[in-house]
Amino acid sequence: MNYLYKTLIFDRQVSLSVMETTDLVNKAIKIHSLNPSAAKTLGEMLTCGVYMSGCLKSEKGAVSITVKADDGVGAVSVSGDINLHMRGYIDGSMNGKLKGGYMTVIKDDGFSRPFVGASELISDDVSRNMMNYFDASEQIPTAVSVGVEIGEDGKCVAAGGVVMQLLPGTSDENRDLAEEKMQNFLHPEKLIKSVGAKGIMDTFFAEETKGGHVYMTNPDYICNCSRQKISSVLLAIGKNELYNILEEQGSVSVHCHYCNTDYVFDKKDIDELTNG
Asked: N or C: which end of the chain has fewer CB within 10 A?
Protein backbone atom coordinates (compact mmCIF):
# COMPACT_ATOMS: atom_id res chain seq x y z
CA MET A 1 0.00 0.00 0.00
CA ASN A 2 1.13 3.55 -0.76
CA TYR A 3 0.44 6.51 1.52
CA LEU A 4 0.39 10.29 1.43
CA TYR A 5 -0.02 12.14 4.73
CA LYS A 6 -0.68 15.88 4.63
CA THR A 7 -1.08 18.36 7.47
CA LEU A 8 -0.05 21.79 8.74
CA ILE A 9 2.56 22.15 11.48
CA PHE A 10 4.34 24.88 13.45
CA ASP A 11 1.36 27.14 14.13
CA ARG A 12 -0.15 26.04 10.80
CA GLN A 13 2.52 28.02 9.00
CA VAL A 14 4.28 25.07 7.38
CA SER A 15 2.72 22.48 5.06
CA LEU A 16 3.96 18.93 5.67
CA SER A 17 3.67 15.96 3.32
CA VAL A 18 5.02 12.48 4.03
CA MET A 19 4.93 9.89 1.24
CA GLU A 20 5.41 6.13 1.17
CA THR A 21 5.58 4.94 -2.44
CA THR A 22 7.27 1.53 -2.36
CA ASP A 23 4.44 -0.37 -4.07
CA LEU A 24 4.05 2.43 -6.61
CA VAL A 25 7.71 2.16 -7.60
CA ASN A 26 7.53 -1.64 -7.82
CA LYS A 27 4.61 -1.34 -10.23
CA ALA A 28 6.67 1.02 -12.39
CA ILE A 29 9.62 -1.40 -12.30
CA LYS A 30 7.38 -4.29 -13.42
CA ILE A 31 5.66 -2.31 -16.18
CA HIS A 32 8.85 -0.85 -17.66
CA SER A 33 11.42 -3.57 -16.74
CA LEU A 34 13.63 -0.89 -15.18
CA ASN A 35 17.25 -1.33 -14.20
CA PRO A 36 18.17 -0.16 -10.66
CA SER A 37 19.45 3.25 -11.77
CA ALA A 38 16.37 4.03 -13.87
CA ALA A 39 14.08 2.66 -11.14
CA LYS A 40 15.61 4.99 -8.57
CA THR A 41 15.27 8.09 -10.76
CA LEU A 42 11.75 7.35 -11.97
CA GLY A 43 10.72 6.29 -8.46
CA GLU A 44 11.90 9.57 -6.95
CA MET A 45 10.18 11.53 -9.70
CA LEU A 46 6.95 9.60 -9.09
CA THR A 47 7.21 10.38 -5.39
CA CYS A 48 7.52 14.09 -6.20
CA GLY A 49 4.54 13.68 -8.50
CA VAL A 50 2.52 12.24 -5.62
CA TYR A 51 3.32 15.35 -3.59
CA MET A 52 2.28 17.74 -6.37
CA SER A 53 -0.86 15.75 -7.18
CA GLY A 54 -1.77 15.88 -3.50
CA CYS A 55 -1.74 19.68 -3.72
CA LEU A 56 -4.34 19.86 -6.51
CA LYS A 57 -7.68 21.45 -5.65
CA SER A 58 -9.99 20.88 -8.63
CA GLU A 59 -11.74 17.57 -9.28
CA LYS A 60 -10.38 17.79 -12.82
CA GLY A 61 -6.91 18.79 -11.69
CA ALA A 62 -3.80 17.14 -13.12
CA VAL A 63 -0.06 17.69 -12.99
CA SER A 64 2.86 16.54 -15.11
CA ILE A 65 6.60 16.80 -14.48
CA THR A 66 8.96 16.32 -17.40
CA VAL A 67 12.74 16.32 -17.49
CA LYS A 68 14.57 16.51 -20.81
CA ALA A 69 18.30 16.14 -21.24
CA ASP A 70 20.41 19.00 -22.55
CA ASP A 71 21.09 17.30 -25.88
CA GLY A 72 17.42 16.48 -26.39
CA VAL A 73 18.12 12.75 -26.05
CA GLY A 74 16.40 11.11 -23.11
CA ALA A 75 13.50 12.13 -20.93
CA VAL A 76 11.67 11.34 -17.72
CA SER A 77 7.99 12.13 -17.36
CA VAL A 78 5.47 11.55 -14.59
CA SER A 79 1.82 12.55 -14.40
CA GLY A 80 -0.91 12.40 -11.80
CA ASP A 81 -4.38 13.64 -11.02
CA ILE A 82 -6.32 14.70 -7.94
CA ASN A 83 -7.18 11.04 -7.26
CA LEU A 84 -3.44 10.32 -7.00
CA HIS A 85 -3.55 8.03 -10.02
CA MET A 86 0.11 8.17 -11.00
CA ARG A 87 2.03 7.06 -14.08
CA GLY A 88 5.42 7.69 -15.60
CA TYR A 89 8.24 6.54 -17.84
CA ILE A 90 11.96 7.07 -18.29
CA ASP A 91 13.81 6.99 -21.58
CA GLY A 92 16.34 4.17 -21.45
CA SER A 93 18.99 6.28 -23.15
CA MET A 94 19.32 8.34 -19.95
CA ASN A 95 20.48 5.26 -18.02
CA GLY A 96 18.73 6.68 -14.97
CA LYS A 97 20.84 9.87 -14.92
CA LEU A 98 19.60 13.45 -15.14
CA LYS A 99 22.18 14.78 -17.59
CA GLY A 100 21.57 18.50 -17.47
CA GLY A 101 18.68 20.09 -19.28
CA TYR A 102 15.42 21.40 -17.88
CA MET A 103 12.49 20.40 -15.73
CA THR A 104 9.02 21.51 -16.83
CA VAL A 105 5.94 21.35 -14.62
CA ILE A 106 2.40 21.75 -15.95
CA LYS A 107 -0.41 22.09 -13.42
CA ASP A 108 -3.90 22.00 -14.94
CA ASP A 109 -6.76 23.16 -12.75
CA GLY A 110 -9.28 21.55 -15.09
CA PHE A 111 -10.59 24.88 -16.39
CA SER A 112 -8.18 25.46 -19.28
CA ARG A 113 -5.88 27.61 -17.18
CA PRO A 114 -2.72 25.53 -16.91
CA PHE A 115 0.26 26.87 -14.99
CA VAL A 116 3.56 26.12 -16.68
CA GLY A 117 6.82 26.44 -14.77
CA ALA A 118 10.37 25.48 -15.68
CA SER A 119 13.82 25.38 -14.15
CA GLU A 120 17.29 24.27 -15.10
CA LEU A 121 18.60 21.00 -13.72
CA ILE A 122 21.39 21.68 -11.25
CA SER A 123 22.20 18.12 -10.17
CA ASP A 124 21.66 14.41 -10.75
CA ASP A 125 19.75 14.46 -7.46
CA VAL A 126 15.95 14.62 -7.86
CA SER A 127 15.40 16.29 -4.46
CA ARG A 128 17.80 19.13 -5.22
CA ASN A 129 16.28 19.71 -8.65
CA MET A 130 12.77 19.85 -7.18
CA MET A 131 13.84 22.37 -4.53
CA ASN A 132 15.45 24.46 -7.24
CA TYR A 133 12.24 24.31 -9.28
CA PHE A 134 10.10 25.62 -6.42
CA ASP A 135 12.62 28.37 -5.69
CA ALA A 136 13.17 29.45 -9.30
CA SER A 137 9.73 28.96 -10.83
CA GLU A 138 7.17 29.26 -8.04
CA GLN A 139 9.22 31.33 -5.54
CA ILE A 140 7.99 29.17 -2.65
CA PRO A 141 10.54 28.05 -0.04
CA THR A 142 10.24 24.27 -0.18
CA ALA A 143 12.37 21.53 1.38
CA VAL A 144 12.22 18.26 -0.56
CA SER A 145 13.79 14.95 0.38
CA VAL A 146 12.83 11.84 -1.61
CA GLY A 147 14.61 8.53 -1.83
CA VAL A 148 14.39 5.03 -3.30
CA GLU A 149 16.26 1.90 -2.24
CA ILE A 150 16.54 -0.92 -4.78
CA GLY A 151 17.40 -4.41 -3.57
CA GLU A 152 19.79 -6.89 -5.15
CA ASP A 153 16.84 -8.59 -6.84
CA GLY A 154 15.97 -5.35 -8.65
CA LYS A 155 12.81 -4.73 -6.62
CA CYS A 156 12.13 -1.60 -4.61
CA VAL A 157 12.76 -2.20 -0.91
CA ALA A 158 11.58 1.22 0.21
CA ALA A 159 10.58 4.51 -1.39
CA GLY A 160 9.11 7.76 -0.14
CA GLY A 161 9.88 11.24 0.99
CA VAL A 162 9.18 14.27 3.13
CA VAL A 163 8.28 17.74 1.84
CA MET A 164 7.88 20.89 3.90
CA GLN A 165 6.67 24.11 2.32
CA LEU A 166 6.58 27.49 4.04
CA LEU A 167 3.26 29.29 3.80
CA PRO A 168 3.07 33.08 3.37
CA GLY A 169 3.84 34.86 6.63
CA THR A 170 5.85 32.05 8.21
CA SER A 171 7.80 33.43 11.16
CA ASP A 172 11.58 33.18 11.34
CA GLU A 173 11.20 30.91 14.37
CA ASN A 174 9.02 28.44 12.53
CA ARG A 175 11.24 28.60 9.47
CA ASP A 176 14.18 27.59 11.68
CA LEU A 177 12.13 24.79 13.26
CA ALA A 178 11.24 23.42 9.83
CA GLU A 179 14.86 23.54 8.68
CA GLU A 180 16.00 21.77 11.84
CA LYS A 181 13.32 19.07 11.53
CA MET A 182 14.19 18.38 7.88
CA GLN A 183 17.69 17.29 8.94
CA ASN A 184 16.10 14.03 10.10
CA PHE A 185 15.13 13.12 6.54
CA LEU A 186 18.33 13.20 4.53
CA HIS A 187 17.68 9.54 3.60
CA PRO A 188 13.90 9.12 3.83
CA GLU A 189 13.94 5.68 2.22
CA LYS A 190 15.79 4.31 5.26
CA LEU A 191 13.05 5.58 7.56
CA ILE A 192 10.33 4.26 5.24
CA LYS A 193 12.07 0.88 5.35
CA SER A 194 12.17 0.82 9.15
CA VAL A 195 8.96 2.55 10.29
CA GLY A 196 6.95 3.54 7.20
CA ALA A 197 5.20 6.85 6.53
CA LYS A 198 2.93 6.48 9.55
CA GLY A 199 5.95 5.76 11.70
CA ILE A 200 7.57 8.98 10.49
CA MET A 201 4.43 10.91 11.43
CA ASP A 202 4.25 9.26 14.85
CA THR A 203 7.97 9.48 15.61
CA PHE A 204 8.83 12.97 14.37
CA PHE A 205 5.56 14.90 14.28
CA ALA A 206 3.40 13.62 17.14
CA GLU A 207 3.62 16.90 19.04
CA GLU A 208 3.16 19.07 15.97
CA THR A 209 0.03 17.19 14.85
CA LYS A 210 -1.60 16.75 18.27
CA GLY A 211 -5.19 17.95 17.95
CA GLY A 212 -4.69 18.82 14.30
CA HIS A 213 -6.17 17.26 11.17
CA VAL A 214 -3.99 14.82 9.26
CA TYR A 215 -5.21 14.02 5.74
CA MET A 216 -4.25 10.56 4.44
CA THR A 217 -4.75 9.16 0.91
CA ASN A 218 -3.48 6.19 -1.09
CA PRO A 219 -1.64 6.90 -4.35
CA ASP A 220 -1.43 4.14 -6.97
CA TYR A 221 0.07 3.51 -10.40
CA ILE A 222 -2.93 3.73 -12.72
CA CYS A 223 -2.66 4.84 -16.34
CA ASN A 224 -5.61 6.77 -17.76
CA CYS A 225 -5.26 5.44 -21.30
CA SER A 226 -7.85 3.10 -22.83
CA ARG A 227 -8.76 1.73 -26.23
CA GLN A 228 -11.74 4.09 -26.29
CA LYS A 229 -9.52 7.14 -25.70
CA ILE A 230 -7.05 6.00 -28.32
CA SER A 231 -9.95 5.54 -30.75
CA SER A 232 -10.93 9.17 -30.23
CA VAL A 233 -7.36 10.25 -30.98
CA LEU A 234 -7.33 8.20 -34.17
CA LEU A 235 -10.59 9.76 -35.35
CA ALA A 236 -8.99 13.17 -35.01
CA ILE A 237 -6.24 12.08 -37.43
CA GLY A 238 -8.77 11.69 -40.20
CA LYS A 239 -10.14 8.83 -42.30
CA ASN A 240 -7.81 9.25 -45.28
CA GLU A 241 -4.68 9.31 -43.14
CA LEU A 242 -5.76 6.21 -41.20
CA TYR A 243 -6.25 4.23 -44.41
CA ASN A 244 -2.90 5.46 -45.73
CA ILE A 245 -1.26 4.07 -42.58
CA LEU A 246 -3.16 0.79 -43.01
CA GLU A 247 -1.92 0.49 -46.58
CA GLU A 248 1.69 1.17 -45.60
CA GLN A 249 1.88 -0.78 -42.34
CA GLY A 250 -1.00 -3.24 -42.38
CA SER A 251 -2.41 -1.89 -39.10
CA VAL A 252 -2.52 1.26 -37.00
CA SER A 253 -0.53 0.91 -33.78
CA VAL A 254 -0.37 3.36 -30.86
CA HIS A 255 2.01 2.87 -27.95
CA CYS A 256 1.37 4.32 -24.48
CA HIS A 257 4.71 5.14 -22.86
CA TYR A 258 3.18 5.39 -19.39
CA CYS A 259 1.85 1.84 -19.13
CA ASN A 260 3.90 0.26 -21.93
CA THR A 261 0.76 -0.89 -23.74
CA ASP A 262 0.35 -1.25 -27.51
CA TYR A 263 -3.07 -0.62 -29.02
CA VAL A 264 -3.36 -2.23 -32.47
CA PHE A 265 -6.19 -1.48 -34.90
CA ASP A 266 -6.60 -3.65 -38.02
CA LYS A 267 -8.69 -2.82 -41.10
CA LYS A 268 -11.88 -4.15 -39.51
CA ASP A 269 -11.31 -1.94 -36.47
CA ILE A 270 -10.68 1.14 -38.62
CA ASP A 271 -13.77 0.39 -40.76
CA GLU A 272 -15.94 0.19 -37.64
CA LEU A 273 -14.31 3.31 -36.19
CA THR A 274 -14.71 5.50 -39.27
CA ASN A 275 -18.22 4.30 -40.03
CA GLY A 276 -19.44 5.43 -36.64
From this structure: C
